[in-house]
Structures are given as C-alpha cells and as structure tokens.
Amino acid sequence: MNKSLMNAKDAELIVKSSVLKRRRKDKRLKFYGRSTIFIALSFLVFLFYSIFEKGIPGFFQYYVTLDVNLDQKRLDPKGDLSHESLYNGDGRGLVLEALYKVIKPKGRKEKKSAKKIISSNADVRIAKMILNDPSILGKTIPITFAVDDDIDSFLRGYIKRDTPESDRRINDKVINFVDILVKENKVIYKFSDYILTGSASRSPEIAGIKGALIGSILTLVVCFFLSFPLGVATAVYLEGFAPKNKITEIIEININNLAAVPSVVFGILGLAIFIGVFGMPRSIPLIGGMVLAIMTLPTIIISSRAAISAVPPSIKDAAYGVGASKLQTLMHHVIPLAIPGMLTGTIIGMARALGETAPLLMIGMVAFIVDIPNSIQEPATVLPVQIFMWADFAERMFINKTSSATIILLVFLILMNAIAVFLRNKLERRW
Amino acid sequence: MEMNEDKKDFKTNTVGDIFSDNPKIVSRNVSVYYNDKKAISDVSLDIGSKEIISLIGPSGCGKSTFLRCFNRMNDTIDGCKVEGKIFLDNENIYDEMIDVVPLRAKVGMVFQKPNPFPKSIYDNVAYGPRIHGLVDNKKDMDNIVEMSLKNAGLWDEVKDRLDSPGTGLSGGQQQRLCIARAIAVSPEIILMDEPCSALDPIATAKIEELLQTLANDYSIVIVTHSMQQAARVSQRTAYFHLGELVEVGYTKHIFTNPTDIKTQNYITGRIG
User: Fold this and answer.
1) Which domain holds residue B39?
2) Is the domain of A246 the same as that of A372?
C-alpha cells in the first residue's frame, strides 16, 4: 500500500467534518446576499415613500369658485377678440369684484389684503376661456381660480393660525377672508390644472412641467436620431470591418474610456464646439440632444458590439458559405439577431441621458423659459433641470411640486424602459 | 498552364497518387498559417470531377483547414495566411482578381454543426439564389426550393410546412436543409466538414445515402472522423497527420493495404 495516501476511513471523516464547514459558509454567503438585497430594497422603498408622500399632494391644489361677470367691454377693449386685446383686458378687476361680493372687505386696506387671495394668473385664465369659447362673453358664470401659493400653504396647514401675525406670511385679515370663503363653500381641493399643462413660473400655484417635458422629449429625439445610427454604424464597422491593428486598438480604448467620462465634460465640449466654434444659439434642444448624443455614444457602441459579437459564428459561416458578401451577411443575419441587444444598450443610454443635468447646464438649458418649445430650435429646459430649479426656490409649494416633477420623470423613465422591453421581446427571434 | 504540368516532374512527400485523371480542383504546395503557426504544410492534391474524396486524420491534423481553402472560408479568420496554388477549372482561386462571392456560389459548404438560418425552411433554401439573383420571379424560386429540397431528400418531410422555422427541424433534417441550401445555388463542388458528427446513426445513414446520389452531379470533399464513413462513401481517401498529407489513394487500398506506417497506425486504431 502507498504510504503517502491516507486511510479511507480517516479521509471520510475529514471530508465529513469539512462538509459541515462548507455548508455553513454557503449559508453565510446566502445570508449576506439576502441582507444586501434587503438593504437596497429598503432604501428604494424609503426613496419612493418620501417622493410620493410629498409628490402626490403636489398634483393637487386649492381653488376658489367665483361668479364672474364677463363684461365684454372691460375684457375685450378693442372688441376684436384678438390675443392682444384680451390680454390687455381688465380680467383681474372683474375677478376681484366677484371676490369682494363674497367676502365684503371694508376700506382700501382690507381690499388690498383681499387681492392676495387669488393667483395673479386669474386674468390669463379668463382670457384663455374666452379664446376657447367667445360666446361666454357678457354672461355671469362660475369660474374656479387657483388660490395664491401662500393661501394654499395656509389651507394645507403649513402656515399655522397660532403663529404670531408678524411672523406669518399672511396677515389676520387674509385669514379671516379665507375663513369666509371656506364657510361659503367656495374653496375646493382638486387635481391641479397647472402641474401637467403649465410651464415654468415663479408663482408656484401656476407652475407646471409641460415646457420641461416637451423640452426633454425634443432633446431625447435629437439624441436618439444622432446616437443610434452613429453608434450602431461604429459598432458594425469595428466588429465587422476594422482591421486589427494599433489604430483600431487606440480607438477601442478611447471609446471605453469615454463611457466613464463625467457628463459635465461633454457639456463643456458642447459649449466650446457647438456654441463657441459653430456659433449655434444656446438653450436649444438641438444642442442639448447633440451633447447628450456624444455622451450616449460610447454606451451604445459598447453594447452594440457585445450584441454583434454574441451572434453565433455558425450563422456567419452559413451566410459566407452560400456566397453572401460581408455587407449581406451583416445586414441579413448579424444585425437582425443583434438588434435586441443594441436596443437594450440604446435605452440604457437614453435613460441616462434623460436624467442628465450637468452637461445641459453648460449649454444654457438651465434658463428660465416660460414658453413651451415648439421646435428643436427654440429655447427649452428639460425635466431634471426643472426639478433642480424648483428644488432651489423658497416657496413652500415648490417642495411638493419638486417631488411631483420627480414622479413624472420616473414615470417617463419606466415608460421608456417598458417600450424597450416590449420592442426587445418582439424583435427577439425565439427560433 | 501549370495545371497540366508534367505530373512526373512534380515532387511530393505524399505516398500514393495525388493526381486525378479528370481533375476539378488542383492544389499545389498549399501551406496555411494561423499567425505564425503552420497549420498545414506543402499539401498537393487533385480532386476529381464528380468523385467523393474523404479527408481523414486525427484531430488538429489540418484536414478542416485544408477543406476551407477550397472556398476561401479561411479568409474570414484573422491572421490566416494561405500559400501555394489552388486551381478550380484552371483558375487560381487565390489570384488577386478572384472574388470570393462567385467562388463560394460555385463551391458550396456544409458545416459540422447544422446551422440553418433562424428563418423559415423556404427562406433558408431561397437565400442563396436570392442574393445571387439567380431567379427573378416567385414561380422559379419555388421551383428551385422544391428541387433543392428534393435533391437533399427532405422534400417529403417538409413540403407541408415550408413556412415553419428551419431551426425547428431535427438535427438530421437540419443538416439536409443545409445541404439543400448549398445545392440551391447550383454549385459544382460541395465541401462537407464532418457533416454527420452531430447526428445519430439513422440520420447519418440518410446523409450517406444522399451523398451517393449527389455524387452524380457534384464533386464532394468530405472531412470525417469516422473511418467507416470514409470507407462507405468515398472513392478516394487522403490521410492527414500533423499538417501533412501523408498518404492518398483509392479508399479500398488505403483501408486494406496502407503503405505508410503512420496511416497503418491510424487505420488500425493505434493513434488518433
């Protein structure tokens, strides 16, 4: 018998005892894995809770219903129902008169306090209603107006009644008037007209994300149409045609490095090249899209290359075997099989681009833009920048609106990912 | 013309008769390198018209590499370099003027693992004729597909489901589909790289039977690991060892009375 080999019984014992140890180690690893997942999940739950807890109320706000006499002469001084005429009309005065009828202020001082109750946007609302339906002119109809953000905060309980008047943003008289309105059942709490359809404003009660949302969509469209074709073409060339030499190697290393470059650097690049050298206007989605496209390209190239190289070589052999050219092999067989992977990479890149703020700050998309952009050449802002700006404002109502905008951004992201998953499943060949 | 050079003057280390009376392919002093590694060295061999010749030898002996020279499939491998000359109908296929697309239409290939495209049975067969523009209407294409599938002995099994995926067929059926795909572009030579190694004996028997019919129309070069298969299907057999063509001759002769000691060892199962 070989002396260096162990007795079978001894070996069995040692193996048995080590099995217990190994099993314990397995269990410990499983436990660690589960606890990390639990920690990550609880952070996520906390995040969602805090966003939704603040964000859901942000979608609602307080309104006051007033019977307004839509006097034709005062609302439409020129009498031609033009924008200019209507926006010069005295809607504000008519609204205040309707308000005074309910709360009956005495004297100039009280009237001055009462003016603070209704949002400054009331006259615009009337002008828009008339533009929609001129037949309401001359009638007295009930219209709901957003209340000023301070009143909103008071009604929500953020501004407390028992705070000394001097420390309060609204005085006792205004509180008194609000009480009357509440008693007369004129105040309602409902889904905000402004959050989805309004654009940027310093008055939180009429501020909305429509402008930023459209800005984001326009920017992403530009980004997609630049980065997807370029990225896929680059990946196809590098995988299918590029000779394996030093230059290709340097290009590959650089592409991989670009994926890790801080996004603000791309903003500086955009500022220097597009705005500095080519003299393009700042703040427009076209430039935003171009900058984000440069930022997204490496991600798309890397994932597209992975998708292309994952296509089984036997399929390529089969195509070459019947005499397909390189281009035919790529177009007929390789790319159709690689498309789902390419799309996944693109969507990951686009999702990152959607949430990006820093590079857009550099090219001026942080500007305060009230108008809703109609084209990629009009100044615009984007959702994350809007969130960033709102988070910066002091008014209490903006805290809720910031979370509301974050919810909308998340919904947008989930929608994009859902489309990607849907497309991928549809294009994936199961045979 | 080099192809018709005096056979007696040609010197080679290979045992047996490398020449064919009616050659379709003539290869002379072919060496293949993968980067700096020599995969096959100085191989000269004629492939006769409408004959089946099998290439046998242990793994890594270069028989597949040699096979892939005939339709320049080695071009698709990075760092692969081919030296020597291969004439197909008096034309050097490694000439700079030669385009691989018509070459591969003329020299079809069937691979080790059945590799139908992830498309329908019909599209698998129609792909070659379509990209080469062999026909311009649906009726002629239908005809090509039907004839190819018939010649590949698959028509009766799939005629009712031409639209179903080619990858849904059994392994043996897939391989016959690949043969149908290869013959759909009317090649003159078919290269087969261990076509039965992934198939069961029944599917293998079918393919071997098919090979005999195909030999009426095509020259067939088949690489195989199975000596029985080589013995069953081919007229001539070439034995490769470590990148060299050791011995070539009539199959009967090679398997019953090999001349070279290495061939003897392989045939009798002592190596390989």
Assistant:
1) 2-120+187-267
2) yes
In a domain, B191, yes or no: yes
Q: Which residues of A365-388 are buried (b: 16+ CB within 10 A; e: fewer)?
A: bbeebeebbeebebbbbbbbbbbb
The answer to the question of residue B171 being in a domain is no
For the segment A339-344, the average pLDDT, to the nearest whole number, is: 88
Q: Is residue B88 part of a domain?
A: yes
Distance CA B111, CA A317 (A): 8
For residue A243, give how far its alpha carbon lies from the nearest alpha carbon of chain B (Å): 9
Nearest to A195 by CA among A80, A316, A57: A57
Q: Which of B76, B104, B118 sits opposite A322 (nearest CB)?
A: B104
Residue A201 in domain: no
Contact check, Cβ <8 Å, A321/B73: yes
User: Which amino acid appears at position A133 of this protein?
Assistant: D
A46 and A72 both lie in a single domain? no
Q: How far apart are CA A387 and CA A208, in angstroms?
A: 11
Q: Which of residues 211-250 of A touch B (CB under 8 A)?
A: 244
**Contact between A205 and A149 (Cβ < 8 Å):** yes
Determine whether the interchain pair B181/A322 forms a contact, defined as Cβ–Cβ distance below 8 Å.
yes
Together in a domain, A214 and A324: yes
Note whether B132 contacts A323, CB cutoff 8 Å: yes
> Which residues are CB-contacts of A257 (< 8 A; sequence separation ≥ 6)?
none
Answer yes or no: do A431 and B165 touch at CB < 8 A.
yes
**Cβ distance of B182 and A320 shorter than 8 Å:** no
Residue B105 has its nearest CB partner, among A317, A318, A323, at A323
Based on the domain organization, do A50 and A120 belong to the same domain? Answer: no
Give the confidence band of A431 by pLDDT, cuts at 50, 70, 90: very low
Q: Quote the number of domains for chain B.
A: 1
Q: Which residues of B touch A334 (CB under 8 A)?
A: none
Query: Tell me: the pLDDT tens digits for B188-212?
Result: 999 999 999 888 898 899 899 999 9
Distance from the Cα of residue B159 to its chain's centroid: 27
Mutate one of B64, B80, B101 to test the A interface: name it (highest A CB count within 10 A): B101
- What is the rounded (10 degree) CA torsion for A251, A228, A374, A56? -100
A217/A373: higher pLDDT: A217
Domain presence at residue B148: no
Prediction ipTM score: 0.90
pLDDT confidence bin for A243, thresholds 50/70/90: confident
pLDDT in tens, B76-134: 888 889 999 999 988 899 988 889 899 999 999 999 999 999 999 999 999 999 999 98
pLDDT tops 60 at residue A81: yes
Q: Domain containing A242: what range?
A: 210-427
pLDDT confidence bin for B2, thresholds 50/70/90: very low
pLDDT confidence bin for A348, thresholds 50/70/90: confident
B168: nearest CA in chain A? A431
Task: Note whether A319 contacts B: Cβ–Cβ < 8 A.
Answer: yes
The answer to whether the CB atoms of A317 and B73 lie below 8 A apart is yes
C-alpha span between B191 and B64 (Å, rounded): 10
Contacts of A431 in chain B (CB under 8 A): 118, 165, 167-168
Tally of CB atoms within 10 A around A307: 23
Nearest-neighbour CA in chain B from A303: distance (Å)? 22
Predicted confidence band at B149 (pLDDT cuts at 50, 70, 90)? very high
pLDDT given at position B272: 55
In chain A, the number of structural domains is 3
**B117 to chain A nearest CA, in Å?**
6
- CATH number of the domain where residue B254 is located: 3.40.50.300
Instruction: For residue A9, count CB atoms less than 10 angstroms from its CB and return exposed for 0-12, middle for 13-18, buried for 19 or more.
Output: exposed
Q: How many angstroms separate the CA atoms of A116 and A282, rounded?
A: 37
Question: Would you say residue A112 has pLDDT above 90?
Answer: no
